Amino acid sequence: MATMKETLVNADLTTTTQKVAVPTPQPGQVRIKVVVSGTNPKDWKIPQWILKGPQNSGDDIAGVVDEVGEGVVGFRKGDRVGAFHEMMEQSGSFAEYAIAWARTTFHIPHDTTFEEVASIPLAATTAGLAVYQRLRLPMPWQQAQKRTPLVVYGGASAVGAYAIKFASLANVHPIVAIAGRGIPYVETLLDKSKGDKVIDYREGEEHVIKELQSIEPNDEGKMHAVDAVSEKGTVGHLAKMKAKDIQIATVLDTTIKPEALAELPKHVNIMFTQVGHVHRVYYPNLEKDVPFDKQFGAILYPFISLGLQEGWFSGHPYEVAPGGLEEGVKVAMGKLSRGEVSAKKMLIRVADDE
Fold first, then answer.
1. Over the chain, what is the mean pLDDT?
2. Same domain assignment for residues 192 and 341
3. Is residue 208 classed as helix, strand or coil in its secondary structure?
4. Are 89 and 149 in a shared domain?
5. Can you list the alpha helix ranges (DSSP code H) found in 119-248?
6. Shared domain check, 250 and 142
7. Residues 50, 143 within the same domain
8. Single pTM value for the model
9. pLDDT digits (tens, 9 = 90+) for 167-186
10. How confident is the model at residue 231 (pLDDT cuts 50, 70, 90)?
11. What sign does the dihedral 204-209-212-214 (CA atoms) show?
12. Residue 291 neighbours by CB under 8 Å, 6+ apart
């Protein structure tokens, strides 16, 4: 039986590397030899807050297809790919081999690095769902035909930055991004000629609210926002915008935190964006979204692949944690849990390029 190394994140954020059997892809799945793994804040939060025990919590895969499961079309051994692993399931990306569904796997150009690709899957999928599925903004091939203001809270975060990219592809403007240390990066994503601008949250709460209230809603009196921070304060700030209809896509489930919603007026609509919906139901009360999110996911990944190939889509800035698989996961989880990562993704190099 072939074995591989797999690194688990423990509840105390130490790591354990163990030898396990190389996983076998099931029908509809692909096995990928991991070259670079991405990381996300949930990679330390799930073992510590939810499971209270060890998990290979990596979900951002960049590598080479090693085996395809029954019924898989469009992928074969040796293909360079990126993929979004199904959250909370075994065979994640903190390992030498990982499993992904073919429908959330995408081809990557030969001149695109595995590092860039590893910065994409989970964050870009979250942003795509928020912009297109929750807020119902135009798809890129539809192009917004009139002024469509969008606020992105946490514009330097990976989710926020991808939300800006997706909105820009659809000609959604003006985009107002709220950021801090990452403002220099955020400004590279904006088009000031179309009214895009940045609000610096470091200037204080009153400044942020004043700037938000200066934004004119669209012709129907509506404002759209992606809240990539999704805390009580950020939702509260967005709720104070001067519009008769405020639509906010959040990335944390404020619907199960009544204190975050208690003082919101009726014209503020909060829509939780659960990225895992491209795979399955995680929250029964949101089950109605899942069939359509699965369809959206199946479309999004070839779209990203085409964007990488043609140059109109790109990954997020990144930093590779030193030490390879085991040490790299430990370093990344430490930096993420201490809030030391801003305007970049922490990556782990698992293997040499093929």
1. 96
2. no
3. helix
4. no
5. 121-128, 158-169, 183-187, 205-213, 232-239
6. yes
7. no
8. 0.97
9. 999 999 999 999 999 999 99
10. confident
11. negative
12. none
